[in-house]
Amino acid sequence: GDSVTQMEGPVTLSEEAFLTINCTYTATGYPSLFWYVQYPGEGLQLLLKATKADDKGSNKGFEATYRKETTSFHLEKGSVQVSDSAVYFCALREGYQKVTFGTGTKLQVIP
Amino acid sequence: DTEVTQTPKHLVMGMTNKKSLKCEQHMGHRAMYWYKQKAKKPPELMFVYSYEKLSINESVPSRFSPECPNSSLLNLHLHALQPEDSALYLCASSPGQGTGGYEQYFGPGTRLTVT
User: Fold this and answer.
1) N or C end: fewer C-beta atoms under 10 angstroms in chain B?
2) Contact yes or no for A89 and B42 at CB 8 A
């Protein structure tokens, strides 16, 4: 079946550091890929998405590129802020409505 | 309006109580979802409604009973829950069925505690 693997957290960075959160996936077909963010005490918010190979999703300074050859969708940001501290979920959707989530990566940004 | 609303925000209930969670969206979406999320875990799918019909039940115990009265509203009726059912319950919606980039929009969740 489909699966998503994310790097273990927590990831602790200083403000303005470069962020990479790795995500790889296994799927039988051609899934759509997503990054969701969950701030403490809140629901999930869609951060960005990509629907086909080589697509780049971007939002709020975050970006990720759909790499079919490496089955990856790594999340990057050039300069993180304290307000980016949250849990980030990589996810894929293939077929009828069901989304497969990764285990989540907690990001802590310190001033 | 890209918002999914959920009420109540917090709920404490005893094991013999009956309560309901409510979810509403006004984006014209035709698919709605219930998820359960335990601490430090990803959301787990419980139910999917498509065009107001139950399309997926992930083998959820019958003490959880979903209802979709109309295309904008989704309820989750709770009865005789167990303490291990304590979790954050998330509602989500998406434009419709089928493949493609139909991202899901999530509500803020209901934090449920079963005593």
Assistant:
1) N
2) yes
